[in-house]
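Progress note, sequence design subtask.
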């Protein structure tokens, strides 16, 4: 292969750039869980277990698929998205609600956090656990053959004005 072809070749993606962006994970969790919750409301009249299962699965999947650079987003976003989704679901899931507007919304949100506690805790714990594992495995030093072959070359020895050759790095004195 010629050197011109090597120069014009696009760089290979690094491990940090492989995967879904943090924004993509937020959209994945939000849209999938919202669709599952809305489908459960239309089918059964109430948000049910489908909403919680969809949240747990997408939170864990998001932490597993996100770029290493955006792992923190995948760990922080799930509980915040759950809160937003519950607030939005309160406008769709209106079966058996009585009282004024604020009372209905407050009761629905409180009920969603009480009955949905296993889902929010499980989804958040899975996202944090997977994210922690991925960050820890990325930080651990591994000696790979590719890393040793791409190491920076050492500087050649330099000549002093007197004509003596001096090493590039100073030698320790005994």
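Output:
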């Amino acid at each position: 292969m010629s050197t011109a072809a090597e120069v014009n070749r696009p760089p290979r993606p690094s491990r940090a750039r492989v995967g879904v962006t943090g924004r993509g994970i937020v959209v994945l969790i939000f849209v999938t869980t919202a669709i599952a919750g809305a489908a459960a409301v239309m089918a059964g009249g109430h948000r049910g277990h489908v909403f919680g299962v969809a949240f747990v699965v997408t939170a864990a999947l998001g932490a597993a698929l996100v770029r290493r650079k955006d792992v923190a987003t995948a760990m922080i976003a799930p509980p915040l998205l759950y809160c937003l989704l519950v607030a939005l679901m309160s406008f769709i899931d209106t079966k058996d609600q009585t009282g004024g507007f604020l009372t209905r919304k407050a009761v629905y949100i409180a009920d969603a956090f009480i009955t949905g506690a296993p889902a929010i805790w499980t989804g958040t714990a899975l996202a944090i656990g997977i994210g922690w594992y991925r960050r820890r495995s990325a930080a651990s030093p591994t000696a790979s053959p590719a890393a040793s072959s791409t190491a920076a070359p050492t500087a050649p020895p330099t000549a002093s004005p007197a004509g003596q050759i001096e090493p590039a790095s100073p030698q320790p004195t005994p």
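The two ends are 49 Å apart (CA to CA). Work on this subtask will continue into the next period as scheduled.
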